[in-house]
Amino acid sequence: AQSVTQPDIHITVSEGASLELRCNYSYGATPYLFWYVQSPGQGLQLLLKYFSGDTLVQGIKGFEAEFKRSQSSFNLRKPSVHWSDAAEYFCAVVRGTTDSWGKFQFGAGTQVVVTP
Amino acid sequence: NAGVTQTPKFQVLKTGQSMTLQCAQDMNHEYMSWYRQDPGMGLRLIHYSVGAGITDQGEVPNGYNVSRSTTEDFPLRLLSAAPSQTSVYFCASSYSDTVNEQFFGPGTRLTVL
After folding, report:
1. Which residues from chain A sit within 8 angstroms of residue B47, using beta carbons?
2. DSSP sequence for A5-74
3. Do B101 and A46 lie within an 8 Å CB cutoff?
4. SS3 state of residue B53
5. A48 pairs with which residues across the strands?
6. Mind listing the pLDDT tens digit for each residue in A41-65?
7. What pLDDT, on the 0 to 100 scale, is given for residue A1?
8. Which DSSP letter does residue B41 get?
9. pLDDT in tens for each of the 113 residues of chain B?
């Protein structure tokens, strides 16, 4: 069975510092990979996605993520964090089989706190 | 477009009561899903649908019922509410031609006493 692991439950980062959020997946083939962000009291918003091709993908709000097949990882990064980036971040995977296209599996999430 | 809408935003139930959480989308998406979000557990799939008349169970379906009579609507029914169903519920939708971004509603916060 596939699984998604976000090892860091909580990260505190200073405004202006860099941020990296980890995501590891367990699946026999390369899945479709997503990062979503959830601001307090809000629904989820897509940051970026990886389906195939270039392993470094750019998203909204200055975020990027790198897919590493050898490490089964899809880590999210931002070079310089803004106070508005304080939120919860979720990694999600979808299997590539036709009957699974709508079944997203989410990690437990990483809460990001930004300090002045 | 309103996107994905959910009602109500908040609800308090007593154990044993039943209720329906409403979800609607105006993007003509075939896939619709219900998730519950609990602290430290991320979002877990309850039920999903690939189109009108077709539904399937997700990871945590027990105690919930769904049906999909139209493309736009995908209500979630709690048959006999239990305190373990206290959670935040999200509805999401996407196109079905391949794996696509899911669009999420604002959520319903449910408390079962």
Report:
1. none
2. E---SEEEEETTS-EEE--EEE-SS--EEEEEEE-TT--EEEEEEE-SS-SEEE-GGG-EEEEEGGGTEE
3. yes
4. coil
5. A35
6. 888 999 999 988 889 999 999 999 9
7. 67
8. T
9. 789 999 999 999 999 999 999 999 999 999 999 999 998 889 999 999 999 999 999 999 999 999 999 999 999 999 999 999 999 999 999 988 777 889 999 999 999 99
Of B42, B58, B59, the CB nearest to A109: B42
Residues A57 and A54: their CA atoms lie apart, in Å, by 7
Distance between CA atoms of residues A13 and A15, nearest Å: 7
pLDDT digits (tens, 9 = 90+) for A64-100: 999 999 999 999 999 999 999 999 999 999 887 777 7
* Integer CA distances (angstroms), A40 to A43, A109, B57, in order: 9, 13, 28
Query: Could you give the CA distance from residue A87 to residue A81 in angstroms, rounded to a whole number?
Result: 12
Residue in the block written with tokens 């999903």: B48
- Residue appearing with tokens 């990871």: B59
For A57, half-sphere exposure in the C-beta direction (CA atoms, 13 angstrom radius) is: 21
Q: How many residues does chain B have?
A: 113
